[in-house]
Design brief:
The longest helix is centred in the last third of the chain and has 23 residues. This protein is 36% helix and 27% strand. The protein is built from 12 helices and 20 strands. The chain is an alpha+beta fold and 384 residues long. A hairpin with a 2-residue loop joins strand 10 and strand 11. The protein has an 8-stranded mixed beta sheet with strand order 6-5-14-15-16-13-17-20. A 6-stranded mixed beta sheet has the order 8-2-1-12-19-18, with helices on one face. A 3-stranded antiparallel beta sheet has the order 3-7-4. The structure holds flavin-adenine dinucleotide and 3,4-dihydroxybenzoic acid. 3,4-dihydroxybenzoic acid binds next to strand 15. InterPro entries: FAD-bd, FAD/NAD-bd_sf, RIFMO-like. Its EC number is 1.14.13.2. Keywords: FAD, Flavoprotein, Monooxygenase, Oxidoreductase.
Length: 384
């Protein structure tokens, strides 16, 4: 079997790349370890930057997103018994974010690929990449796929990055002493905008998916066990961390899904080796506080599409050669922003009273100075 681009992983990065390449007349095969149902039901990100929305609309997969996505022009920071709105419409006019579940993006992309006759293989075992510096090919489940280029879109735990020979990559990494417990619940959102809450009990985030479904996250210990978090405890803790301003009541409802996500910052440089190009979480991870991971994956894929289109049209390799450098500037801005939002809003067990005062001082600055609030707003909606 032969294709132009062998794509490992059917997350947002792999599916979008396959679709954008198809629109440029470039063939690909997507190899995914999990089932279609699993990939479509995996609850993860929810915040799309304007640039991500624009990409999906231009690619012809924005119809449901435009209908069901929830545009937001601000977020709330809640701490010290008060609510502080960061007004995007004032600080970064004409740019907004859209709340639309990652699994909906994945569903829309799978539908588009299959409608166009795309070759998506789910539940493939033992994917391995070979001859990355020569004539690359992928083996899986006893089959062989020859390609001109391989795109490693297989997330943080995939096979692509570890296939790069030792000594090529430089890794930059930070782990955080906590995790997020994510909860999806059938209950009307208790607020119109996202609430990022800092309390002495830890961080909490109130997000949403639709007028009937809310999404929440709680800072929990890194080794948290779901068995210790029955629904009643989840609601009690969410109430304790969110019902901290006068007049706010958190509505409760049926919990549909719960999961624990570790928090990590990670970058592997360069994002390419020979004819293998990494995109999305396979090359970099951010803690989710800044809502950047999915958006970075889309930005990588846009760069890779342009580079591959030039290569297949004319044989030019300059954009491919510069792919990693082109991505890393945005990657590092998002790394800093995600680290900054995380340290601003979480409690750290080893933090002394001085550190807590610094945190509160910075929160006061961000919520009282237009310059500081603009820094948050322009990073949150996404730098171009
Ligand atoms: P993935 O989505 O991880 O996809 C990789 C795919 O490769 C998977 O389908 C996997 O099964 C497959 N795969 C892995 N190994 C193999 C193999 N050996 N062979 C074949 N296939 C393989 N980002 C945001 O932008 N905004 C947010 O609001 C946000 N919130 C988040 C909240 C949570 C709780 C979490 C966990 C993440 C959040 N993120 C957010 C991050 C975002 O979900 C990821 O950055 C995004 O999924 C990256 O997409 P990807 O396609 O690179 O990787
Ligand atoms: C969501 C996730 C995030 O990481 C975030 O910062 C905001 C919202 C969400 O899943 O809705």
């Amino acid at each position: 079997m032969r294709t132009q681009v062998g794509i490992i992983g059917a997350g947002p990065a792999g599916l979008l790349l396959s679709h954008l390449l198809h629109l440029r007349g470039i063939s690909s095969v997507v190899l995914e370890r999990r089932s279609r149902e699993h990939v479509e039901q995996r609850v993860r990100a929810g915040v799309l930057e304007q640039g991500t929305v624009d990409t999906l609309i231009a690619a012809g997969v924005g119809e449901r997103l435009l209908r069901e996505g929830l545009p937001h022009e601000g977020i709330e920071l809640r701490y010290g018994g008060a609510a502080h709105r960061i007004p995007f419409e004032k600080l970064v006019p004409d740019r907004r974010i859209t709340v639309y579940g990652q699994q909906e993006v994945v569903r829309d992309l799978i539908d588009a690929r299959l409608a166009a006759g795309g070759d998506l293989r789910f539940e493939v075992d033992d994917v391995e990449v070979h001859d990355l510096e020569g004539a690359p090919y992928v083996t899986f489940g006893g089959e062989r796929l020859d390609c001109e280029v391989i795109a490693g879109c297989d997330g943080f735990h995939g096979v692509s990055r570890p296939s790069i020979p030792e000594g090529v990559l430089t890794v930059f990494e930070r782990e955080y002493p906590f995790a997020w417990l994510g909860v999806l619940a059938r209950v009307r959102p208790s607020a119109e905008e996202l609430i990022y809450a800092r309390t002495d009990r830890g961080f909490a985030l109130h997000s949403m998916r639709s007028p009937e479904v809310s999404r929440f996250y709680l800072q929990v210990p890194p080794d948290a066990d779901l068995a210790d978090w029955p629904d009643e405890r989840v609601w009690a803790e969410l109430k304790a961390r969110l019902e901290t301003i006068p007049g706010f009541t958190l509505e409760t409802g049926e919990i549909l899904e719960k999961g624990v996500t570790p928090m990590r910052s990670f970058v592997a440089e360069p994002m390419q080796y020979g004819r293998l190009y990494l995109a999305g979480d396979s090359a970099h991870i951010v803690p989710p506080t800044g809502a950047k991971g999915l958006n970075l994956a889309v930005a990588d894929v846009n760069n890779l599409t342009e580079a591959l289109a030039a290569y297949f049209a004319t044989g030019a390799t300059d954009l491919l050669d510069g792919y990693s450098a082109a991505c890393l500037r945005r990657v590092w801005r998002a790394q800093h922003f995600s680290w900054w939002m995380t340290t601003l809003l979480h409690t750290f067990d080893d933090e002394d009273a001085y550190g807590r005062r610094l945190q509160l001082s910075y929160l006061d600055y961000v919520t009282s100075s237009a310059a500081a609030a603009t820094t948050l707003a322009e990073n949150y909606v996404g730098l171009s």
